[in-house]
Design brief:
Elements lengths: L1 E8 L8 H5 L12 E2 L4 E2 L3 E4 L4 E6 L5 H13 L25 E7 L3 H8 L12 E5 L4 E5 L2 E5 L10 E4 L9 E3 H4 L10 H13 L25 H17 L4 H10 L4 H19 L12 E7 L2 E7 L5 E3 L5 H15 L6 E6 L7 H15 L10 E5 L14 E6 L6 E4 L4 H11 L1 H5 L6 E5 L3 H16 L12 E4 L6 H9 L7 E6 L3 H12 L9 E3 L21 H15 L2 H10 L11 H15 L10 H13 L5 H48 L6 H14 L7 H14 L13 H11 L2 H5 L5
Parallel strand pairs: 5-16, 5-17, 10-15, 15-16, 19-20, 19-21, 21-22
Antiparallel strand pairs: 1-4, 1-6, 2-3, 6-7, 7-8, 8-9, 11-13, 12-13, 13-14, 17-18
InterPro entries: ATPase_AAA_core (IPR003959), Bact_Antivir_Def_Nuclease (IPR051396), P-loop_NTPase (IPR027417)
Pfam family, one: AAA_21
GO molecular function: ATP binding; ATP hydrolysis activity
């Protein structure tokens, strides 16, 4: 069972749907559940549609994002809300006949056979089969609706089981350490914390006579220090550690008991047990798959008195405790452990409130992958979980799935919270407004950027990629989480934007450029090439270029790739959206479908056709067709639920060569960027080393340099392999393992080899002429 729509009324910032109530069309017709009181006053519920897999809720402060999560819990459980939760600025708040409590509802679909039977058993419905139903918790009753029919049910819902909601607690990180006795099953609160034990031991060292039987008439020293049991917060952290080590890693309580006994008997045996635990932990976590910031990261255990301490080993080979690292990793591990240890049942909804608080930008992208794993598990034994999360962060938004975004906005006075429709259209403009101008701009900054001419180009490319995921899941589609589409405002601005991105700072992001295949586009290509050293020529191309080096004749701009039927319908759809009904109908009647001949630009013909239809239809004001509304209209039609599959396939077929070419050039740009980073690291370390060792060089110093270099290389880049091979060659050639305290025989040759090492990554990818 899936929750596809949430209905909220009179709950905190959610008053009612004031926009729907104010409309004078068919959408304002009340549903059965929208009427209040004996007078049947029209107070429509605020409706928030949810995706069957992942839903992202964003909005400004106090927009009602967190309250939506509580509303979902109230709907599913019937608990957690009282009279004081009633919307206080609602006109109904002071009315005697008004509902005494907030009201919630939901639409449920994807029913299993048992759930289908349970719904049918609630009443003698007219329908013999039920695909979905609505359930509403009013202030005085609970009602189930099937179509136009309804039945009142008791608090137990007459045996109907709704999905269960749960939360990953974003407030509980993994602890620095955990008591071995707790892991062995001693969960009593009478134990002492580590500080308590250390206090007693210090007292005994200072007062060993406290253990002796005092002489007659003498007083024995008594420990009077703090001896508090673990706090609730610490116990929550210990429980998270237990879930990691017992539920995930599979270490048993008996094994921890054995470790506790071994501490006082055999230190070597205790250390051997800890090594065994570390192997189990590494095998079960496979953490490098999820934490992309360090492919060599590992979580390990270390024995310390009565505790097991969590330590982190990074790519440098150095061990750290949690106290020595940022909180982000500690909290991500907490989310990850809760994900791995969660016992999934069918019909569950994960709710998370701002999990981005402690995570870096990359960490938030990694968290998105955990959400995706919840919603789309890679094993048949795990049931899919519906995910709803609230965020303030632009980095916790999956830009490949604009349909998942829900933007909440709080109105003035009694208007309350509403949902902004079409949040992902026009390159996420409502999303930018909700997050704020400064923060929202950072949503579209990444390590790889595609410079485009106009504002409509990102909309068409993003839309084509979304269509591609529907019609060809294994085909070509841009990953908008790793590639930023940057509109430059015209071909003349391309060179300046490239300069801003690549020409000022030492750390240069990866950039590629795609322009229209016209005179202005070709001039822009020459302008960028004239700025020597900024971009390789292969990363500057036009929409007509393809991955195999050929060109597509007749393709000048992205609009030329839109299928004709879709383009003509998009133009008429714009007219229906911006013109009065009578003029829109006159425009549609006067419209003549365009059919461009070879070499003609599709969009120019559409603009001319719009002018001709405006004149023929005798419009008061002619319709001026612009590229951005046209692109939005095309994407809306292509992604609509009732979209023509043949037109979707045609759109993908037309855009596929462009998408494939961009993907290929993106990989090239990322390789070039990795090479530049590798050369920067090598040159910095080499210069510092030569400055510190102008004369003779000891072998241990040379080894230390190579180890530092290996630790700082971006090992996830394939280009690093050539550098690593060169380092191994240097190690063998200068026999650095022999007599490590001796001096190098040829220090100048060693310096030369370091210089050639700087270009190992570049030479490795050079193609022979």
């Amino acid at each position: 069972m899936k929750l596809t729509t949430v209905y909220v009324r009179f709950y905190r910032s959610f008053n009612f749907d004031y926009l729907r109530k104010s409309k004078e069309d068919t959408t304002s017709t009340p549903d059965l559940w929208d009427l209040v009181g004996d007078d049947e006053l029209f107070f429509p519920f605020v409706r928030i549609p949810l995706e069957p897999d992942v839903t992202t809720v964003v909005g400004a402060n106090e927009a009602g994002k967190s309250q939506l999560l509580y509303a979902i819990e109230a709907l599913l459980t019937g608990k957690g809300y009282v009279r004081r939760d009633f919307c206080r600025y609602s006109t109904e708040f002071a009315e005697e006949a008004a509902p005494g409590l907030p009201e919630f509802g939901g639409e449920f679909t994807d029913l299993s056979e048992d759930e289908h039977s349970a719904v049918l058993g609630l009443a003698n419905w007219t329908a013999e089969t039920v695909n979905s139903f609505h359930l509403f918790r009013f202030h005085d009753r609970t009602v189930v609706y099937v179509g136009e029919e309804s039945v009142e049910v008791d608090e137990a819902l007459s045996g109907l089981a709704l999905p269960r909601s749960f939360r990953i607690d974003a407030r509980v990180p993994l602890p620095d350490s955990v008591e071995i006795a707790y892991l062995a099953g001693d969960t009593s609160r009478t134990g002492r914390t580590r500080d308590g034990w250390l206090g007693r031991m210090s007292f005994l060292r200072l007062h060993p006579e406290s253990l002796d039987t005092p002489r007659t008439g003498e007083a024995r020293p008594v420990y009077d220090g703090a001896d508090d049991p673990p706090s609730n917060q610490l116990l929550e952290q210990w429980e998270l550690a237990r879930r990691l080590l017992v539920d995930v890693a599979g270490i048993t309580h008996d094994e921890f008991s054995e470790l506790g006994a071994a501490i006082s008997i055999s230190e070597g045996y205790a250390e051997a047990l800890v090594k065994k635990f570390n192997r189990k932990l590494a095998d079960s976590l496979n953490f490098r798959r999820w934490w992309t910031q360090d492919s060599d990261f590992s979580l390990q255990l270390r024995l310390r008195d009565f505790d097991l301490v969590f330590t982190i080993r990074d790519r440098t080979g150095t061990d750290y405790t949690f106290a020595e690292r940022s909180q982000g990793l500690q909290y991500f591990l907490s989310y990850f452990v809760q994900y791995l240890s969660h016992d999934r049942n069918k019909g569950e909804i994960l709710l998370m409130d701002e999990p981005d608080a402690f995570l870096s930008n990359s960490g938030q992208q990694d968290l998105l992958r955990i959400f995706e794993a919840f919603a789309h598990p890679d094993t048949d034994t795990a049931a899919p979980v519906q995910v709803v999360y609230v965020t303030h962060s632009p980095f916790l938004i999956d830009k490949n799935h604009a349909e998942r975004i829900r933007v909440l906005e709080k109105g003035e006075n009694e208007e309350g919270t509403r949902i902004v429709k079409n949040a992902g259209r026009n390159h996420y403009e409502p999303l930018r407004s909700a997050l704020g101008a400064f923060v929202a701009e950072t949503t579209f900054i990444s390590s790889c950027n595609l410079m485009l001419e106009g504002q409509a180009d990102p909309i068409l490319l993003a839309g084509a990629s979304n269509v591609a995921r529907r019609v060809a899941p294994s085909g070509n589609a841009l990953d908008l989480n790793t590639l930023t589409l940057v509109p430059c405002g015209g071909a003349r601005n391309i060179a300046y934007m490239v300069h801003l991105a690549r020409g000022r700072d030492e750390d240069k992001p990866a950039v590629l450029v795609m322009v229209d295949d016209d005179e202005e586009g070709r001039a822009a290509i020459e302008d960028v090439k004239a700025m020597r050293g900024l971009l390789p020529p292969s990363l500057i191309f036009s929409v007509a270029d393809t991955a195999d080096g050929s060109r597509r004749p007749g393709i000048v701009e992205l609009e030329d790739l839109v299928p004709l039927a879709l383009a003509n319908e998009a133009a008429k759809r714009i007219a229906a959206a911006v013109l009065p009904a009578e003029q829109a109908e006159a425009f549609r009647s006067a419209w003549t479908d365009v059919k461009p001949r070879r070499g003609q630009r599709l969009f120019k013909l559409l603009k001319d056709a719009a002018g001709a239809a405006s004149a023929k239809g005798e419009l008061v004001r002619p319709l001026e067709l612009e590229k951005v509304p046209f692109a939005r209209s095309v994407v809306d039609l292509a992604l609509a639920k009732d979209a023509d599959p043949e037109l979707q396939q045609e759109l993908y077929t037309n855009f596929q060569p462009v998408l494939a070419h961009i993907e290929m050039r993106q990989r090239e740009a990322m390789r070039d960027n990795a090479q530049a980073r590798i050369s920067t690291v090598i040159n910095r370390l080499r210069k510092n080393f030569i400055k510190d060792h102008p004369g003779r060089i000891r072998k241990t110093d040379a080894v230390s340099l190579l180890e530092s270099l290996q630790a700082q290389l971006p090992l996830e880049a394939a280009e690093a392999d050539a550098v690593l091979q060169g380092m191994r060659s240097i190690h063998r050639e200068f026999k650095l393992a022999d007599d490590p305290r001796s001096m190098l025989d040829e220090p100048d040759l060693f310096r030369d080899r370091l210089f050639t090492l700087s270009y190992g990554a570049t030479n490795a990818v050079q193609q022979e002429a």
